[in-house]
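Suppose a colleague, Dr. K., hands you the sequence of a protein chain of 412 amino acids and asks what its three-dimensional shape might be. Before reaching for any lab equipment, you can write down a predicted structure in token form. Begin with the sequence itself:
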Amino acid sequence: MRARAGYPSKSLLAILLLAVGIAPLLNYGLSAISDLVITDLGISEAQFGLLATVCFGAAAIGNAAFGRFTDHQPDTRLMVLIFALAALALGLAAIPGGYVLLLIASGLAGVAQSFPNGVTNRVLAQRVPETQRIGWIGIKQSGVQVSQLVASIGFPALAAWIGWHGANAVGAVIAMLVGVLAVRVIKRVPFLPELPLTDQSRSKAPAQDRHRAPSIKFLIWALAAFGFVNGMGVQATNVYLALFAVREFDFSLVMGGMTAAAAGAIGVAARVGWGTMMSKGMAAPPLLLTLAVMALAGAGTFYLAGSTGSAALLWLAVALHGASALGVSVVLMAAVVRSVPPGSMGMASGMVGAGQFGGFTIGPLAMGALVGSPGGFSRGWSAVGGVYLLCVLLAIYLLWRRNRRNNAAAAS
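The predicted structure, expressed as tokens, is then:
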């Protein structure tokens, strides 16, 4: 049954943001207190990186496997899954059960990240008017960076007070409470009315679908590929940023967390800003090229900061990272919502998400191995720079292909 159309309240937007941000809370929280976790568990940097690898590996598999499942489940059921799995992951991390239990918790947190993009994109397509839709994508995708900001400030502070297991317990309680609220909000927001097809539009629809299908298929694969490459650099940086500040600049645990918090805060503003640009009609390829160039500059600045010991360069690198690489997700998801029918939103979002999480899986593990090698962080930042250079080349190709297609359309 379709309810009356209307402009949804900001409570829906807040729930979409929290649905996107709740599952990454464990990973960002552990990253913010990485030095403490490594020391307490007696593990290596590479073993710590494996926690993120397990998390994002589970998310990559889940996004690819559960896309069609998401398309056939009601929004409320998916919201319950997201928040329940996130709460369970945080609850397991609150138990002093050692490294293996923390690996299991990380895997569950990854599974929880299999559903948010699909269901939140579908909610936008089916319940939010078109005039608001793309702008809201930027805000709800900033949920990941809100999570990074909250975890990077909250976990070190809570760990100093009640230990890092206690910090995870607080996160579990919050996830459960917000999950209940999310279901209540979703139930109150009506669907948009379905637009009737005229006889003329019915006759044109099959031809349009045949024309659009190949281009949409290419778009999804291209977005997934860009998300994969960018994702390697994003999480290689996110997971080891606080450790870099503590180890190389002698920052305290709290100040180390503040570097990740600053990246998250800038990432929130960036995602909202890039989402606003997309809502005004800007195409994805030129924006992706801009972000890739900025991210490459950020990787170079991290390298210079480590080489010179300059804290000022460290903060500049943090700002560039937050403004660029962390903003890519909103561009990818806005492109999906623009181009894909609501009935296939879960599958398309899942494919793009799987690409991103595939990159997220590789980045921390590779960075951990490089940081633990004789080359240390210098070798790690060089590798991150190489990843972002590949992003630049891929964005140039996508822009060239788009321009060629537009020129061909204009000529015909």
